[in-house]
Amino acid sequence: MNPLRPSGAGLGFRRELLTELKTHVPDAIEFFEIAPENWIDMGGAFGRDLRRFTERYPFVCHGLSLSLGSPAPLDEMLLHKTRQLMNEHGIALFTEHLSYCSDDGHLYDLLPIPFTEEAVTYVAARIRRTQDILERRIAIENASFYTPSPIAEMDEAAFIRAVLTEADCDLHLDVNNVYVNSVNHRYDALEFIRAMPTERIVYIHMAGHYNEAEDLIIDTHGADVIDPVWALLDATYRIHGVAPTLLERDFHIPPLSELVLEVEHIAHIQSQHGYAAHTRHEPLSHAS
Q: Is the overall model pTM greater than 0.70, yes or no?
């Protein structure tokens, strides 16, 4: 399949939503995202469902467990399987978190990489190897984190820019993560957005979070997007231009009719910055 490039506003392709999506895909949704770990070697009805959608809509693969900053060896088997999945379904873009989640075993959380020159060199080499195996340029996502690194030779924005340059990869900008970190670590979210390199931003995430305390926000992807994060997305488009933007919702998933209201809000903000939605794809076949 020829890869389809995402554009406009998108939504995570979740099995909980499949019944509704097979009946009708709302016009605001121009692309979908999957975690490759959840779909590699998937056969049967779910595999057929995925094929029906990837034939008609652009998809993005957003990795969950590659653990780019881990001291453990890079999971090259996972990357080879991910490349096969992407080739089979015509998926152009792969993104991963600029963090780590494993060592001898899985740590079940995304942990921050120390903001040091040594870490820049280390993780950039792993990103280059990832791109070699996938045979694609990838994008790395700025991650939310809750405990500052005990070793820091630069701030988060400088670290991200250094990795992007050293690895020669692109940026997956998570606007909610910027907001979460700005509250938790007391920095200016808008200044962080301005510090990101426009030419490398190829993909954006939006999501909700949970307020644990006045000065502690947890990135849950389990609530509606709040007004300050919508305002930050608007500012991001004003500063850097419009990029494909996905609504993440991983917990407390409401019906599709409610989720799509936020996707429509993304599309509305994009239209205010000059983006025109693409022509709709052909309807899905109802064949099993």
A: yes
